[in-house]
Amino acid sequence: MPQHHPDESLLIEYANGSLHEAKALLVATHLALCPVCRRAVAAIEVAGAALAFEDAAAQVGPMPDVTAAAVETRATAVEPNAQIPEPLRGYLGRPVPELGWVPVMAGMKEYPLPAFARRSSVRLLAIEPGRRMPRHTHEGLELTLVLQGNFRDASGAYAKGDVATADPSVDHQPQAGGGELCLCLAVEDAPLKLTGLKGALINAAGSVRKLVGR
Predict the structure, then answer these.
(1) CA nearest 19: which of 46, 34, 51, 41?
(2) Taking the CA of residue 17 as centre, how many other CA atoms within 13 Å lie in the half-sphere pointing to its CB?
(3) Number of H helices, E strands in the chain
């Protein structure tokens, strides 16, 4: 049973269909793993439908759709993949090992979802057991859903189905747990910003490359 859930405001936006597709995908995939949030969203939808019915009684017109249909309709049948629940599986279209993984650093690789290219950062992250990510903070909101394995940072431990939320107030260095690969879905609405000694060195190297390029 997941112990960390999306913020209530995200569940409300998901239920009434106003949540951005990238975040809606993460929330919908979390719902597939979390009966607590499924019940919460169902209750919000019932309340929304009741309000819509009252409005419809006062004016002629179709009742609004209060579901996250834009995401749910993408959940088409594809080759089975036990690690990935719908609707995320429908966005991938193939088993995890066959995705076009891109190395990020030693012990970590990513797969950016093509459906969100040039719109927002939506990617799968695969982190080897025990591996630490570089210390970083955020220029916007980052949502991370654990699909397999686990990781921990200063805010706590996150296992399958959990959602970690980070914003510019968070400066952390997540570490994958031991035993199995940590597989996550990450949605970011702004770039990460590396911090700490390693981040300073990487940022300095990037500055040098820009100067040389000129």
Answers:
(1) 41
(2) 12
(3) 6, 11
For residues 87 and 201, the model is more confident at 87
From 3.40.50.920, 2.120.10.80, 3.30.70.100, 2.60.120.10, which CATH number describes the 90-213 domain? 2.60.120.10
Whether residue 50 contacts residue 63, with contact meaning beta carbons closer than 8 Å, is answered with no
DSSP letter string over 73-93?
A: TT----S--TTS-TTHHHHH-
* Residue 54, token pair as written in the block: 């009252």
Beta bridge partners of 44: none
Segment 15-30, tens digit of pLDDT: 999 999 999 999 999 9
| pLDDT tens-digit readout, 108-129 | 999 999 999 876 799 999 999 9
Residue of 74, 73, 54 lying closest to 64 (CA atoms):
54
Average pLDDT over residues 186-198: 83
How far is it, in rounded angstroms, from Cα 157 to Cα 177?
9
What letter represents residue 191's amino acid? P
